[in-house]
Amino acid sequence: MKINVGIVGISGYTGLELVKLLINHPNFELSYAGATSQNELEDIFPSLKNVLNLKVEVADTDEIKARCDLVFLALPHSEGMKVAKELRGSGVKIVDLSADYRVSLENYEKNYCSHIDLDGLKEAVYGLVEINRDRIKNANLIANPGCYPTCSLLGLLPFANMLDPKFGVMIDAKSGLSGAGKSLKQTSHFVSVNENMNAYSPLTHRHSDEIKEHLNLAHNTNIDVMFVPHLIPLSRGMLVSSYGVLKPEFKDIDLISVLEDFYKNEKFIRIRREPVSIKDVAGTHFCDIFAINNGGKIWINSGIDNLLRGASSQALANANLMFGFDESLGLPLVGDSI
After folding, report:
1. Which residues, at least 6 apart from 184, have a Cβ–Cβ distance to it below 8 Å?
2. Which end of the chain has fewer CB atoms < 10 Å from its terminal CB, N or C?
């Protein structure tokens, strides 16, 4: 069974990762590539020469409707919903990698811009597989979670109803440079990032609200989130440290046992017995998690590949479920670290 697949916004890092995943997928066939201008795929990504002969076309929703059963939207915020709005109801299933359908209207317009597809916002399913697997299977529009929220939430969710809301949660997150996107900025020059690390948008980053919203929705809690992201001089990978305080009745609980029970049936969550290493998850779909409890004060350590589990391979897992395939089809298991 072959499913015709399109990627709109193929020229970015997540677009390339999607191409690499789809090339060897047994059921998905990449048949459409859209961007803002026409080109040859190998001219955008020379590594794909003699691998995939595909023209990149100026994105056109009529062409997508005619040629695709599934489309990945690897577009910036505000651009994803423009395309998704025109495609909804056409029979094309959509996995949107932008922020346009991830949060409530209030949080979206607070952090991004005015929303133009309110019906789509109501219809979209948040694509964090571990908490929404059954809903994803019946969805036509997936809001693929951001990399920081994915890594943070997977670590925090098992403990959300045990955390003392008086203290909230503090999240210290570090991402490889690819998380800043492909467009060149002063802060992403080699001389700016090499042998350096810096925080950005401390306590005001827009992913704070995405993390807080979905953490509290999962357990009907009211936990505040303080979030500080950092750029580190790596191409890919993400490490998150989350700090909180347990309610008195949980202060002596074994955190590793909680993690193992919560994720006992999850193939792509690995519970570690020591702090997480980025090299162990880079190039894979895995999320590694470790946690310790010191008299009710807890530290949760989680790691993912920001381009894969934080974007493209998570999008593929969602697409697999939407079409009734094994969730793990085409997902990368082993990275290239030594």
Report:
1. none
2. C
Diameter of the chain by CA atoms? 61
> CA geometry: angle at 190 spanning 19 and 335, to 5°?
40
Q: In what order do the strands lie in the sheet with 287-294?
A: 198-199, 225-231, 169-175, 238-245, 297-304, 287-294, 269-271
Residues 167, 229, single domain; the answer is yes
Question: Both 38 and 130 in a single domain?
Answer: yes
Same domain, 163 and 246: yes
- What pLDDT, in 10s, does the model give residues 241-289? 999 999 999 999 999 999 999 999 999 999 999 999 999 999 999 999 9
Q: Are 134 and 227 within one domain?
A: no
DSSP string, 156-191: HGGGGGGB-TTT-EEEEEEE-GGGG-SS--GGGSHH
Q: DSSP label at 146?
A: P
CA angle, corner 37, sides to 79 and 330, nearest 5?
Answer: 70
**Which residue range is the domain that position 165 belongs to?**
148-304
Residue 115's Cβ-count burial label (10 Å; 0-12, 13-18, 19+) is middle
Is residue 53 located within the same domain as residue 141? yes
Measured CA to CA, the distance from residue 117 to residue 88 in angstroms comes to 10
Do 121 and 178 have their domain in common?
no
Contacts of 217 (CB under 8 A, 6+ apart): none
Q: Can 113 be counted among the known catalytic residues?
A: no
Q: Is the pTM of this model over 0.85?
A: yes
